[in-house]
Amino acid sequence: MDFFTLTLAIPLVSGMLLAVAGERSWAPNLNVIASLGTFLASALLTAEIVAVGPRMVFGEMFFIDSLNVFLVALTAFVGLTTSIFSGPYMRNEREHGRLTAPRLRLYKSMFQLFMFTMLAALTTNNLGILWVAMEAATLTTVLLVSLYRTPASLEAAWKYFILCGVGIAQALFGTILLYFAAERVLGETGHALLWTHLVDVKGQLEPTIMALAFIFLLVGYGTKVGLAPLHNWLPDAHAEGPTPVSAVLSGLLLNVALYAILRVKVLADGAIPTGFAGNLMMGFGLLTLVVAAFFLSRQKDIKRMFAYSSIEHMGLITFAFGMGGAVANFAGLLHMTLHSLTKSAIFFAVGHAAQKCGTQVMEDIRGLIKINPVIGWGLMLGTLAILGMPPFGVFASEFMILTHAMKHHPWATPILLLALGVAFAAIFGKVQPMVFGETHVKRLPHAPAITPVFVHLALVLMLGLWIPPYLTRWFHEAARMLG
Amino acid sequence: MNTALPLSTQLINLFAAVVLLLAFAMLAQRRVLPLINLFALQGLTLCLSTLVVAFTTGQAHLYGSAALTLALKAVLLPLILHRLVRKLQVKADVEGLINVPTTMLAGIALVIVAFNVALPISQLSSTISRGTLGIALASVMLAFLMMIVRTKAIPQVVGFLAMENGLFLAATSATYGMPMVVELGIALDVLIGVIILGVFFFQIRDQFDSLDIRHLENLKER
Amino acid sequence: MNIFGFLGQLFAIALALLLAPLLTGWVNQCRAWLQNRSAPPLLQPYYMLHKLFLKDVVLAHGASPLFRFAPFVVFGCMVLACAIIPTLSTDLPFAPAADTIALVGVFGLARIFISLAAMDVGTAFGTLGGRREMLVGFLAEPALLMVIFTTAMISQSTSVATIVETLAHRDFIIYPSLAFAGIAFTFVSFAENARVPVDNPATHLELTMIHEAMILEYSGRHLALIEWAASLKLYAYSCLGLALFFPWGIAEGNSVAGLLLAIPVLVAKLAIGGALLAVIETINAKVRIFRAPEFLGTAFLFAVLGLLVRLLLETQS
């Protein structure tokens, strides 16, 4: 059996199985096993692609190249660690009485289906199906955000649905325009939405239509990435949903939405030689970065703060891809990977910390290092990593983005430095007393799964010190493809 | 001058104009049930317009889309919404944030913007229904406006669905519709979306005893 | 201009003067039937006019010359309007005197005079009526202008006669814009002619009346002229609507046969229109005066939509 088929089929089948079976004692294990299976399949798929190069699957429906295969592997990996983390986390929540068995069943099946939609969005060759998968990803997570059924979580889910719904509708209009532009060149062959065909004729696409299409697509998928000014749903959804959901939203959904923009940007760049798409992305990226940085300092809720940190990083990555060129694209891809790993690690640590202290309000979380040194250090190291301290990998990618900006867009450098500085001060100032400080809190009934935190952080550290050569080659290839 | 337009184009234009009219009617409608009926009517008009396009151009897959539109947007979704309204015992009135005439003026401004945006594109198109692209974009924007000015959950959802109607019109007018597989996917998404929202409505109502989403305004930056 | 055209024009004016009260009578009769009342005779408006013309004029103490002067101006404006609008034939020697925009101006002039006259005597009702009339007028006029622009864009001319010529003698084309414009025009006509959703011509209830409040102080031949002018206005609007949206049957040249054929067609169309008017008035309730702006706003919306649809959909070749 094909590894690719397995990668897509495992989450789909297990999601349905979990929905039908209900909350059994083996359900959490099935969740982990399914995620492990997906990860192994995707790892083998990656190895295969590295060995033989890009290929199509099922006719021309799916397409795997160096750009999406590493995202597939990353997605599957974060999915795996999240499922490991969520086992004890969810048991604790149930013990607290915050969740019931039917909701846990909903959570597990939706989690797997969400993985399926993410992987489908990444691998599909059809830009229409990409849209469908993105919308499906919203739908699977809406009920997860409102899993606690508290007023705040319902509000967050409603906002998430409506804002992303509106955004995704813009993206559909963009897709229609794109199809329209493509049909003029490719004819009514049914191939006009297939990316592999589009990329061959990108130079012939009508620039006027492509410009408009790209604006709509950027705004549409940008809503999901969390680009300002349509980022409002993101902090709410991250703060009010269960922590595993926050981790996958931040670590995966944002990436996949950005991936959609990147795919379209390649086409827009081909059609519009003036760098219109890149400039637009740089503008949105900078705006997002600055807005998020200044909101960071005002946060009281820990998950909310890290949600804003996600917005900030997404802004930075969007800016990097907007600059374009081999170095910036390389940095952008690297930063995407590192952000996923680091941010999900932070959310794991935060989830346990909040569960231990029974609150997400930062002022009430104190002295983690005494309650549970492992979580305390995990949160501290994760924070240092996301803030771009050497030797963690984020430092390398941020450094690359900054130097590239200085060289080609010097006007943006002060803004970048200011925003990063503000973000650093805000986050570090708040995390420091949470980790060190006085406290009295009792132990949790189930020991937290802390391994994922350190696995992620170790990877981030490794990528800061040494990037494996095949990974470099791979990033280079993807960066070259992005132009 | 105008004599060059063939009858089918005239019919399509007429239907598009009706869609626009219905978009405005929905914007102005203060009650929930007539709002849903207007939505169903818009779906029906879309279906008719698609049928005319399909008949004129002989695009077989457009018959499929027309049937899909009829089944989903003119029958199934309105039925689900009616059922929801009945089960949730929603009160008849729809409160708006802004009064109706102001909303209408804003709507006109949006239509002008939409027409201006769409004009250069529709001139590039070669379909018989290209003129309606501006109307499609205008309906999308009007639905968007409706989502902004309404404070109850169900009208917002109707706005969301109406937006999808506008997008569908855009697809038929610019390109004779998207590939069938994409259209099926979109339809599936919309259907699942409405079902999930139905579940969601009950959650909101259980929590707040009301479907007024002004209860949902506590999460903001302080 | 030849003598025949001139005669045709005079004939059209005479016909307007004659038919206008009949139209009012017909609408009143239909309304009465629909509302299960015993109907007044069809010729009742003529009896009214006759009676009023015979009566003495009673003037208020403070009335200025304007007050006495106004009915004649209003009547004159309406006759002029009826002269410009093609009722029987599009070959009108008077038509170059004023195009559609001027036509709206003529209606505006009449409105200003009647409002000034209403306020002239200084009674509370007059002032109230005058103010309400201006409110309605200032909202209705832009909508009417938009309707006219739409038709003018189709025919590339603002002359009423040319517009009707273009619209009447063309291949069958569906104009969505004209449908919008037609709805808007209907709305405006209701408001301008003091019909039910905005005003009720049959009541003197102080909370609601507009037109009747303005003319309370008039009597005798002044009142007769104003009533006649009101009938003429309804006639003019009906004919304008028919000419713009159902122009079939209007003679193009000035042959006697064409004119003779046009008369029964016009009468039939007016009869149907009047009956429809009665139906609409019966099935609708009068709205509060403060909802009138909403009503007219909708009319404006339709008119603008018509214009936009015209611009977008119908201008491509």
Please name the defining characteristics of this protein.
heterotrimer; A: 483 residues; mainly alpha; two-stranded antiparallel sheet; 19 helices; globular; C: 317 residues; 70% helix
What would you say this structure looks like, in words?
The complex is a heterotrimer of chains A (483), B (222) and C (317). With 483 residues, chain A is mainly α. Chain A has 19 helices and two strands. Chain A has a two-stranded antiparallel sheet. In chain A, strand 1 (55-57) and strand 2 (62-64) form a beta hairpin. With 222 residues, chain B is mainly alpha-helical. Chain B has one domain (7-219). The longest helix of chain B has 29 residues, at 60-88. Chain B starts with 6 loop residues before the first helix and ends in a 14-residue tail after the last helix. By secondary structure, chain C is an all-alpha fold. Chain C has one domain (3-313). Helix content of chain C is 70%, strand content 0%. Chain C contains eleven helices and no strands. In chain C, helix 5 (124-155) runs antiparallel to helix 7. Chain C starts with a helix and ends with a helix.
The quaternary state of the protein chains shown equals heterotrimer
Largest protein interface?
A-B, 48 and 48 residues
- Gross morphology of chain C: globular
Q: Structural class of the helix and strand makeup of chain C?
A: mainly alpha
Beta content of chain C comes to under 5%
Approximate strand percentage of chain B: under 5%
